[in-house]
Amino acid sequence: MNQQIQNKLALLPDQPGCYIMKDKSGTIIYVGKAKILKNRVRSYFTGGHDTKTEHLISEVVDFEYIVTESNIEALLLENNLIKENLPRYNIMLKDDKTYPFIKITNEKYPRLMITRKVLKDGAEYFGPYPDIGAANETKKF
Fold first, then answer.
1. Residue of 120, 126, 13, 130 whose CA lies nearest to 66
2. Is the Cα dihedral 19, 133, 129, 84 positive or negative?
């Protein structure tokens, strides 16, 4: 781990946000979100990891972070950053998938459904949810 990363790790806040990992050419190779930036980002540079994560960390020479007001805001920001930058280590969302939302249609007899597209169709949308399982549980409730 280089000195620049060590210095930045010491400055990480105890707040939610997104982190952006970069390689030696400055290319964004991974985007993630955290409830507590300090804990999450530091975890990459300590302890054992799976092969994919070890390979990612071996390429990281710099990182940036963006503090958000809430974990939900971090989730939305992460989604947007992944779509904008298409980091190669982000599997989820890279194939144009998005987080699921619960939709209440604007019909005479409204339907409750799960969708990955938020349209300007007069319906009410709730989310995003971190995964389809969480959206289904909320829908059942």
1. 13
2. positive
Strand order in the sheet with 17-22: 28-34, 17-22, 62-67
- Contact assessment for residue 139 and residue 114, using Cβ atoms and an 8 Å cutoff: yes
pTM score > 0.70 for this model?
Answer: no
Q: Is 95 helix (H, G, I), strand (E, B) or coil?
A: coil
Which tokens sit at 135?
Answer: 């959206």
- Quick: pLDDT tens for 10-33: 999 999 999 999 999 999 999 999
What is the C-alpha to C-alpha distance for residues 101 and 107, in angstroms, rounded to an integer? Answer: 18
For 27-71, give the DSSP string.
-EEEEEEESSHHHHHHHHTSS---HHHHHHHHH--EEEEEE-SSH
